[in-house]
Design a protein that fits this description.
This protein is mainly beta and about 160 residues long. Helices cover about 10% and strands about 55% of the residues. The protein has one domain (about 1-150). Strands 1, 2, 3, 4, 5, 6, 7, 8 and 9 form a 9-stranded mixed sheet that branches. A hairpin with a 3-residue loop joins strand 6 (about 90-95) and strand 7.
Length: about 160
């Protein structure tokens, strides 16, 4: 945990002119059931990424439901939070509001060599659906898969 704090602190102090990543594309997930509808941004792609660069990502969500849906947080998917195998990175939550979450991702190691290196951070947005739809006596939890990908090339 100290290594993560140290890395994020060092990256935060670096001048922004050193960073060149460009947001290439965003995608959205929509979950529709008879009990609720939820839409959340969940797929973010960056190009021109410099290894170690700190990416700040904000994902917003909206819902329609009789029960109050709330975002519990974000977690790394296990057992492989980064792909392809050998890719490593760090993630830290910056801010969470009633309808969005902002976090930072840095890819610290890519597998392979060459001009076009790619990595993907696999995360889950975790929602409390505010109701017990399955009848087990507890509010249901919904996980929405998130992918943040980065490529050192100008195309993904």
């Amino acid at each position: 945990m100290r290594r993560l704090a140290l890395l994020l602190g060092m990256l935060a102090m670096m001048p922004m002119s050193l960073f060149a990543a460009t947001l290439f594309k965003m995608g959205q997930a929509e979950i529709i059931t008879e009990d609720y509808q939820l839409a959340a941004w969940n797929n973010v792609k960056y190009v021109n990424y410099i290894p170690g660069e700190l990416l700040t990502v904000t994902l917003s969500y909206a819902y329609v439901s009789d029960a109050p849906i709330s975002l519990i947080g974000i977690s790394q998917r296990m057992p492989m939070p980064f792909t392809p195998n050998g890719t490593k990175g760090v993630i830290a939550v910056v801010e969470q509001t009633a309808d969005s979450i902002t976090f930072q991702v840095a890819f610290t190691q890519f597998k392979g060599k060459g001009k076009k290196l790619k990595g993907v951070s696999h995360l889950d947005l975790i929602f409390d659906l505010g109701a017990d739809y399955d009848g087990d006596g507890a509010n249901d939890i919904l996980k929405v898969g998130v992918q943040v990908s980065a490529s050192t090339a100008s195309t993904p």
